[in-house]
Every structure is written in structure tokens, then in C-alpha cells.
Amino acid sequence: MTAQTAVPAPAAHEVVDDLVRGRVAGQSLEAPFYTSEEVYRRDLDVIFARNWIFVAAAAEIPEPGDYVTVDVGEYSVIVVRDDDEQVRAFHNVCRHRGSRLLPERQGAVGNIVCPYHRWTYGVDGRLRFAESQPATFDTTCFSLRPVHVRDLAGLVFICLAEQAPQDFDAVAEVLEPHLRPYELGKAKVAATYDLAEAGNWKLVMENNRECYHCDGHPELITAYFPLFAYEAEDITPRLKPLYDRYVKAAEALEKIRAAHGLPLTDHRELDTRVVGFQLSHLPLDGEGKSFAPNGGAVCRTLMGQVQDAAFGDLSLHLQPNSWFHLLSDHAVVFSVLPTSTGTSTLRTTWLVHPAAVEGVDYDLDALTAVWRATNDQDRALVAGTQAGCSDPGYVPGPYSMVEDDVEAFVNWYVTRLREAIA
């Protein structure tokens, strides 16, 4: 008998490469994209370590020495305001023997002092003190390692790569005039909380990128028109009365935007550039003011330079991990970070005018009620989808006509992975 030569199984990275190359446009991803440890490691390396990711509102670090720490896979990053009131970012690693410098999520420091051997750094990252060093020791060689950071009109992004994607400047130029009236950099944090999601980070993002399921958000759709990404030809008879109301509200909002001297053009470049984004200034139902029932206000003090309470919802999406809702009386900012193959963390932060007083200008429960409920409803949907994608019976299904932004997110994601393979 002739001995048969065993054919070696393909390496794990080759399996992922084949999945990426074989992705079918217009369909949900194959199960391993949500369940494979090798894909998760690829996501951390290609998506989260090489692209601009949203990590905080600048309002979270209002004073010099204020900081937040952000964990991205095995990375930990300090985002701090320096003595010149500029936002900086550094690897949260001591230059001596690697100790974690700041273990807390948020705080304030005069200097950054290593808890191990007391090496001391300024908030500009420079090493200021290291005991028992030889006369030849040069402190300038041991500053904290910097991380790329950008403060876009009060929204803070970092990039862990040596070379950050260059098109951030072009995107910032488009977005900044739309964001300017809200003065997010001067806002006050009213609340923030983290929600543990039992789902892969991509499922959290995909869920956010469509309103096909918005009937499952009764608190939200008393003010939010559940028509995001719908075109006139997508409107069913059931949605026709709602759509007619939306058209009238959109016409009224455009007049208000024009009176403010704002750009009237929305933008959608979700998968046509590295820093993918979408910006839409959407009307709200009812009173058109905010996320209270029937579009009512939730805060008496308007944001920044906004002069009209019926200012709709400036909705902004940025790839790969964030979305934002800016309203006349508050803003809500969201970020998603992966924590394992099948888990992630959704952080939600509510911002108000710095002069707004809790209990006088706003009630905290009323301010946060809609998105706490909506996030929790989405948490259950994401967990159910993660369970389904982990089931041997799962096969990819087709996206509907109103899930274009889900397809755009997935296409952006797969494009980045393909570029990395190339």
C-alpha cells in the first residue's frame, strides 16, 4: 500500500485571510468574524491599533492635570490636559521597568508618579525625577511615549499607530463648522456610564447603524423619527403618515439651520475613505427640541451658541467605534471598545451647558432616561445576535434596502483588513 501524505491544516491567520477575501457584499459576515479569537486579535491589530478611535469628550478633562485612561486590547493610554490646556496622550507605561502608571479610569494629577519606584513625569510627558541615577543619566531620553491625539471641537480621538491616517484633517475641516455652535469643549459632563455588552464589538456597531429595528425603542421614537437611512421609495404604507410629518419637520429645521448660518449639506463617506464618517442634521418629532416625550426639552439651558430650542438632532457617525447626538439642550456621545471575542463595552456620556445646574435646569433621570432605556434594549438585541452567530445553524443573511449603513460599516471594516493583507 502507498502511504498517504497528510495535508497540513491551514494556519489560523490563513483562515482569516480567506474569510476576508471571500466576504460577500450585501450579506452579514460569516460567523468567525464574531466568534473567532484569531479574528478578534486581527481586529485589535488592524482596526483599533491603526485607526483613529474616539475615546473621550474633552469635557471629561476640563482642567490642567485632569486625565482619563483608556484600555484598547492590551494597550492602556493616558489622555491628559497639560499645563497649557492642550490635550495630550501617552502610553500608560513607566519608562523605567514598565509599571502601569495610572490605574484609575479618571482623576487629576499635578505630576504623573509611578507607584513602583516614584519616577515622576510632568503632564507634558517629560521625565522630571528619577532617583539614584548616574551622573550620565539623561532624563530627556525617557519621556513618556506619546500617542497621536486630536481634539475635534471637543471630541477626543487617539491613534496608536506610528503613522496615523492622514485624512483626519480633511474630515475635521468638514465636521468642525457643524459642531462649532454646540461648544462641546466648554460643556459639562452631566453623566457617564459603561454598559457591558455580551456581543462582539462589530455587532454593537452594526446594531447602531440601522433603524430597521427602531420599533423596539418605544422611548426613543416618541421624539426620534425611525426613518434613518430611509429614502422616499423605501416608505411603506404603514410609515407614510410618519414620513409626511418628517418631511414637514425637515423643512422647518432647514430654515432654522440657515438662520444660524450653518452649512446645509449633510455628508456620507462611511466606506469611501479611511476616516469614514456620516453627518446628518435630522429633525425631531413633536416639539422638535430634544429626547423628552413628544420631542420636548430635557434641559432649560441651551448648548453653546444654539439659539433655537427646536434645533433637531445633529447625528454623527465615525468609523470604527463611535456615534454622537447633538441637540439644542444637551449632547450624547458614545464609544465602543472590544473586551474579548464575544464582549465589548459601550460608554455613554451626556454633556450639558457648563452653567446648567442639576435639579434646577435639568433632572438627571429625565436627561438620561431615553438612552439608558435604548442602550439596554440594544444590549439584549446584540446579545441575542451574538448567540445566534455562535449557533452552528447560522448562515449569513441579506441586508434590507434600509441597511445601507450596516453594509457601509462592514465594507469599511473588511476593506481595512484587506489592505492589511495586501
Task: Give your account of this protein's structure.
The chain has 422 residues and is an alpha+beta fold. It folds into 2 domains: 24-51 and 168-422, Alpha-Beta Complex (Naphthalene 1,2-dioxygenase Alpha Subunit, Chain A, domain 1); 60-164, Rieske Iron-sulfur Protein (3-layer Sandwich). The protein is 26% helix and 22% strand. The protein is built from 8 helices and 17 strands. The protein has helices at residues 12-21, 32-35, 37-48, 168-179, 201-208, 240-259, 364-389, 404-421; strands spanning 53-57, 66-72, 75-81, 87-91, 106-108, 112-113, 120-121, 127-129, 148-152, 155-159, 188-197, 267-269, 277-282, 313-318, 322-326, 331-340, 343-352. The strands form 4 sheets. A 7-stranded antiparallel sheet has the order 11-17-16-15-14-13-12, with helices on both faces. A 4-stranded antiparallel sheet has the order 4-3-2-5, with no helix packed on it. The chain is globular and about 80 Å long. The model has no long low-confidence stretch (mean pLDDT 95).
In brief, what are we looking at here?
The protein has 422 residues and is of the alpha+beta class. The protein has 8 helices and 17 strands. A hairpin with a 7-residue loop joins strand 12 (267-269) and strand 13.
Key terms:
26% helix, NAD, Naphthalene 1,2-dioxygenase Alpha Subunit, Chain A, domain 1, alpha+beta, iron, Rieske Iron-sulfur Protein
